[in-house]
Request: fold
Amino acid sequence: MQSDIAIVLFVILGLVFGSFGNVLIARLPTGEKITGRSHCPLCGVHLRIIDLIPVVSYLILQGHCRSCRKRISIRYPLVEAAGALLFILAYFLVPTKIPLAILLAAILWLLFIIAVIDASTKEIPDILTIPLIAICALFAFLQKDFSIVAPALGAALFALQWGISSGKWIGSGDILVAIGIGFLLATPGHVILWLLLSYIVGGVVAATLLLLKKTHRQAHIAFAPFLVTGALITLIVGDRLLVILP
Reply:
């Protein structure tokens, strides 16, 4: 019974964070203040509370603005639903320690928002990466898995690539994300697995886009989505993979 209540609370929290994530995704790249009232991205009309219920409002309005009736991007409910799923995932990864689960949920949410912004703008705001590092370090400390070696390993690899390519292969934001994920994963073995998975996922996606002629060899592809995907896989099945890998 208590676990059912906890799951419901995590879903609600995830939807709320997902809704706020939409604000960050829409406003941070443009420099707009994140404290202003929510408004329609198409006509600018301020939204009422009834229009701000995560996922539900989008479904009730059938994906259209109540004022201008123009279609609103499906991204909004998807980001909100993703927030709920990430919070549930965090709960199941740390089911016996609710405060730690909430902390992990915040980390996963931050990583997701970073990935979405990087995918759409090819930039990672420092206002997200700095808190990410701090929360990941705190999570590792509370888990008694705090290590400098793990984040240093990931950061060193990306810093090397950044230096060799003068920032053409890897951005400075990727280095900061690597530090945060390094604290989160805690051990060099998990960090190496994460890097391997990230490059595999990135390679498969890039090859697919090239085959479909959706990109070209000189195009810059955002790497944060692959780093986040690799981190999620490592968190979920990393222990099992490390056992079976030579």
